[in-house]
Amino acid sequence: MRKDLERQVQEWLNGFPSESPVVVIPVYNAYEDVVECIESILTTTPSRVPILVIDDASTDERVPYVLSQLSQDGRFLYVRKSTNSGFVGTVNLAFAWSAPRDVIVVNSDVVVPREWLERLRAAAYCLSTVATATPLTNRGTIVSVPYRNQPIERLTGVGEDVNEIDSRVRAHSLRLYPFIPTAVGHCVYFRRSALDVVGYFDEAFAPGYGEEVDFSQRAVMAGFYHVVADDLFVYHKGARSFDPEQKQAVQRIRDSHEQIIHQRYPWYRNWTTQAADETRSSLSLALERAQLALLGCRVAIDATCLGGPMTGTQVYLVELISAMATTPARNASLFVIVPDNIRESELFGIDQLVDGVLRPIDFCRPSTPYFHLVHRPFQIRRLKELAFLRSIAERVVISQLDFIAFSNPAYAVSPKEWADYREATQWAFNIADGIIFNSQEVAQEAAQLGFYIDPNRACVIPLGTDHRLTLSSAPPTDYDRLPSPPFILVLGTSFLHKNRLYALKLLEILINKYNWRGKLVFSGATPSSGGSEATESLFLQNHPEVQPYVRYLGPVSQAEKIWLLQNAALVLCPSTREGFGLVPFEAASLGTPALTARISAFSEILGDEVIYLETFDPERGAEVVWSFLNNPEMQNQQVRALQKRAAMFSWKTVAAQKWSFYERILNMPPRFTVELPHQPSLRVIVPVAQPDAPLALRAIRRIAHTFRVCAEEWGRLFSEARQYLRFLYAQRLTRSQGE
Predict the structure, then answer these.
(1) CB atoms within 10 A of CB 112
(2) Domain 479-646 maps to which CATH number in 2.170.150.20, 3.30.429.10, 3.40.630.30, 3.40.50.2000?
(3) 157: closest CA among 170, 149, 168, 173?
(4) What whole-number distance in Å separates Cα of residue 386 and Cα of residue 363?
């Protein structure tokens, strides 16, 4: 009987091209599943590919009746065994009958999408040494999606149509074809080269369970690989051919076969555990891409500097978040992390634009979402800030606005604070998955300071200048504190690099040489260190005639700032360093000319059509300023040039570029994580298993994962200690030899 079936199959296969693989579907009962599986394969598989169905003596009479009818289709052959021998024996017959062709074994409870075979074959042939290729599925142990290592029956909230799900996985896939320790048996492409070398399934694993693991380990020992077709998703219903009443017997078989695997291949258990847990592997990245496709991406923006007086950084942050939330390019959930004690009014409506607003205290709860990426749009100042970002997201992106505080020790309260800040910056560059600069000037500074950055992980994205933030421009109630026109305005915190002393020297010349009687207005906060107040005070003491024409407003509200910009005769920005420089654009948007030095990022951002202070010589500077104050056409020309340049920097473009950069970073594996110095073990939050998973179960998973991470960190600590002791020993040995 078996010889007759073999002859029948081989004669039928002679009608197909010799290079065509054979699709094999082992069948035993499960009528509805079998019909759905075969229908999906018939409608999606090229006509030149033979489809062989082997019935392992099903007791459901509907199975042979329906499938024998399908054999009228020349590419489909149904054969029925006279006795039941189990999955292993059935597949071994298929391997033998199909020689010398490749074989794709598809479980009868699997549904395949369009073009499934072409993609599975491409994965199997990505290297000459590949033995098997396995597609992603919902029930497939280490190749399960969207929840890694957690097979599920239904993709709740994702969709039920396998073609729709597959198309999303395919669109997001990077086609990495990652290596895995073993084929996963729901759907496997077996290359004939491996079958010829390794042989077929071991009958010791009859009727089923563990046979593909045994085959895979024999293939590995023979020099072959097993890969994942990470651009293909098939739907797997799972263990539907077994009678529910036989569950205990099935479990005994599974346990027995797992014991055989452990005895034969003692490395296998640890290997699969490592593959399942690794977060910096191609498999991890491939599974994450599929998860992004099915569940969407979760991105967070660190906005913990919001609250209190509205500074330039805060304006930039609100505008950035608004643009990121409203851009058509957004294809991810967007969350914002704000200070614990922030008031709703200090959010300026961004809470209505994003998918969620979180506070640091929220991350003490297990139900808080874990992010695929978090972006810090301003500098890291302390290691604990970097540690927090690492603990809440798989990837960290940091914006380096400038290196002003990094390179100036006077801006720190103490030498230790400056050293700590520099250390935090250095670690940020070592650990961050992506770095964003606001100008080429700052990017060049980074290189010259010795920060190596992978070009694929860094980019330059300027700020936007077309602010949407609508605030009152009317003067506040304490109008008396504002100056009367005409006045020259200098905005910004009184850091030394703001060069406010130069503005005072320039004012002295305007008064004494040009007889100007307007005011010079300083508006901005006083820093805790590195301010220029002392030098300004000394200058005014030595030039008492200048004192009546100087006004110090200190920090002002946003409404006062807008009023000042609208009513100033000129906005003077004599800074010696800037990472970008928004003030000239803000002034021009309100019709007020601004004047800067041709230095730092100003010349790059403002372009060549504007008029600059070409030198910091007060005499020459006063001459340029006097020309501005007395020449309306010159003022209008400067405003038009700044407005024209501002059109190049829209928040819409900035948001699209940042989403594109996020996508680039998400397409790469996370950078290798190392323990930050002087920090306690980081609290690690892992993704929630399922939306409806019990809270206790999620907490247990997080606790277990944290223990594992802590163990890894202790291992690194001991390794570092050993290296340090070796270093001390080498030093002592060198010293003794020198003596």
Answers:
(1) 26
(2) 3.40.50.2000
(3) 168
(4) 15
What number of other Cβ atoms are within 10 A of residue 420's Cβ? 16
The amino acid occupying position 203 is: E
Higher pLDDT, 263 or 737: 263
Q: Is 295 helix (H, G, I), strand (E, B) or coil?
A: helix
Structure tokens at 494: 């009184």
Tokens of 564: 């000042």
Q: What is the pLDDT of residue 251?
A: 85
Write the pLDDT tens digit of every residue in 566-610: 999 999 999 999 998 889 999 999 999 999 999 888 989 999 999
Q: Which of 129, 136, 80 is nearest to 110 (CA)?
A: 136
Instruction: Return all residues near 301 (Cβ < 8 A) that are at least 6 apart.
Output: 320, 321, 324, 334, 335, 336, 337, 374, 375, 377
CA separation, residue 433 to residues 174, 372, 656 (Å): 18, 11, 19
Residue type, 70: L
Measured between alpha carbons, how far is 628 from 610 in angstroms, rounded to an integer? 12
Q: Which of 49, 48, 58, 3 is nearest to 26 (CA)?
A: 58
Residue 398 and residue 380 in contact, taking contact as beta carbons nearer than 8 Å: yes
Identify the pLDDT of residue 672.
65
Question: For the segment 609-649, what is each residue's pLDDT rounded down to a tens digit?
Answer: 999 999 999 999 999 999 999 999 999 999 999 999 999 99
Fold of 2-293: Spore Coat Polysaccharide Biosynthesis Protein SpsA; Chain A (3.90.550)
Beta-carbon contacts of residue 112 (< 8 Å; ≥ 6 apart): 37, 40, 41, 44, 45, 106, 162, 187, 234
Query: Cα separations (Å) of 397 from 393, 401, 424, 457, 578?
Result: 10, 13, 14, 9, 22
pTM above 0.85, yes or no: no
Beta bridge partners of 233: 136
| Bridge pairing between strands 130-137 and 612-613 | unpaired
Residue indicated by tokens 């936007």? 464
CATH 3.40.50.2000 fits 296-460, yes or no: yes
**Residues 167, 232 contacting (CB under 8 angstroms):** no
Domain locations along the chain: 2-293, 296-460, 479-646, 694-739
117 or 295, which is more confident: 117
69-107 tens-digit pLDDT: 887 778 999 999 989 989 999 999 999 999 999 999 999
Residue range 118-136, pLDDT digits in tens: 999 999 999 999 999 999 9
